[in-house]
Design a protein that fits this description.
Blueprint lengths: L1 H18 L14 E4 L4 E7 L4 E8 L7 E2 L6 E2 L4 E7 L8 E8 L1
Antiparallel strand pairs: 1-2, 2-6, 3-4, 3-5, 3-7
């Protein structure tokens, strides 16, 4: 059972990394997102932040859909270390796509 879980999460992580969209023109200096989603639908999203910047994460529920600001990750102030947020989604829905939008303060 543990080997199956490890395999499942490895495949899921590979899919999630492939689901992160290409940056918008204004995101040239956005750090990469590290994303993992468990079987209960909780996505863990982390990135390295910089002081004097605020970060907003946008998500896309379906490919080609509208990008919406994630309420739990709107205008988060950078600390100079890693920031982590969580997004609870229905595990039976398609995996969301995420993008990070940094802004100078």
């Amino acid at each position: 059972m543990n080997i199956f879980r490890l395999f499942f999460f490895g495949v899921l992580l590979v899919c999630l990394v492939g689901c992160v969209s290409k940056p918008m023109e204004t995101e040239k200096h956005a750090p990469p997102l590290m994303i993992a989603q468990n079987s209960d639908g909780q996505a863990t999203i982390s990135w390295e932040s910089e002081p004097n910047r605020v970060y907003t994460i946008y998500y896309q529920a379906e490919k080609g859909g509208d990008w919406k600001a994630l309420p739990t990750a709107y205008q988060m102030r950078g600390t100079g270390s890693a920031l982590t947020i969580y997004d609870q989604v229905n595990p039976n829905w398609p995996i969301r796509r995420y993008r990070l939008f940094p802004e100078d303060i």
